[in-house]
Amino acid sequence: MRHVAGLAVGGPLDPTLPLTLNFHPDRLADGVPILRRMAEDGVYLSQFATGTSNGGLTAHPGGDRWHWESRIFGAAYDAAPARVRPVYGALNHRLRAVGAAPRFGSAHFRLVPEVLARSTFCYPDSSAEPTAFGVAARCDLVARASAGDLPALDPALDGYVEAHVHGQVALARDVAALVLDPSHRGTPVAEAAVALGCPVEWHPGFRLSLEVLEANAGFRGPAAVALGRRLAEHGTLDPRMIGDAARSGAHDAQELKWLWHCLVRFGTPGQP
């Protein structure tokens, strides 16, 4: 926190802006449904501890994420146990119903406002070697992200202010609500969510027609479109279908990620 605070500029963050942790609620961690794993642990853990990710799997000593964290946090976590490393989310400055960074999952935890005080921020994403950082007391990153001054970034997928929560994220203490996609109503995901002990809410939902997917085939390429055709039901894709495919192990993980990006980019409710 002290290291990043020394790099931060700007005025204080708006304390009413929600901090969200997006993730796929229907994936497995060590062969266990991830919500069940969370209920057993009582905490939200980083990919260093879970070995799962909706981005890149480089959270190990010497991996890309290890080096990013070493640079961003002034080597503070270089020798730290996996369970004490920060967890990643984003500042929902656009107040999106689907969370601040849906590229990482259809569900999100909305954290209580008190968590902002022990969070650090960067823009763009830590994988892009950012040089702009913030803490709650000093942060100009919302203005940077809102200005769209990095044209290579897609607002729907990449236009978020990344957040790092330092200290444990306890579900009972730090989570205001778990917000799920309606495609998971009546599924094991909805049943498992009850055991977390936090309020459960539902956002409007991700849906994408095959017609729109095919019209935007250049976005993630023909492999994603072909997979979408195989997975769609009644000409439509939603998060539950992609999650079922991911757990089956019968499909290429990269192609599933590309298809998810298409669903977020072209099927997201509300503003981009």
UniProtKB/TrEMBL annotation:
It comes from the Bacteria. InterPro entries: DUF3626. Pfam families: DUF3626. This is DUF3626 domain-containing protein. The lineage of its organism: Bacteria, Bacillati, Actinomycetota, Actinomycetes, Kitasatosporales.
